[in-house]
Amino acid sequence: MVLEDLAKTVENHAPLKKTEIIPYNFFTTEQPVKGARAYLLRHVLHDWPFHACRQILLNTIPALVKGKSRILIAEVILPDMNTSAFGSLMDIQMMKYGGSGRKERMWREIFESVGLEVAKIWPAVGTDSIFELVLQ
């Protein structure tokens, strides 16, 4: 397993068993780990506006192997109607930073805009659902 984060975050991180820790900036650098079976982004994309989400994914896509690799996106999917208090508050909170809570169709727009297909949505257990994305 590989854990990636900004250099200033990982430079003093304690070692983890069976985990390589490497510095990585998903805005400026292409994904350095090539051909993995899965790339997990948990609670990452909701922090960013549409164009930034696209950039993060565009820097991940070159590492994918068609038919083998997947991107797993763990995020809250807001319902089309009757959003919970948690979902509404999260959406308002994210507006301060240019991100947002998103409905399924909004997530799909981001993924499809960079050539990714939703292979499966794993429904929420708690608050997060998981999108399983593959190359189109």
From TrEMBL:
Listed GO biological process terms: methylation
InterPro entries, alphabetized: COMT-like, COMT_C, SAM-dependent_MTases_sf
GO molecular function terms noted in the UniProt entry: O-methyltransferase activity
Record's protein name: O-methyltransferase C-terminal domain-containing protein
Residue ranges of every copy of the O-methyltransferase C-terminal domain listed in the record: 24-115
Native source organism of the sequence: Cudoniella acicularis
Keyword Methyltransferase: yes
Lineage: Eukaryota, Fungi, Dikarya, Ascomycota, Pezizomycotina
Superkingdom, taxonomy of origin: Eukaryota
SUPFAM superfamilies: S-adenosyl-L-methionine-dependent methyltransferases (SSF53335)
Keywords: Methyltransferase, S-adenosyl-L-methionine, Transferase
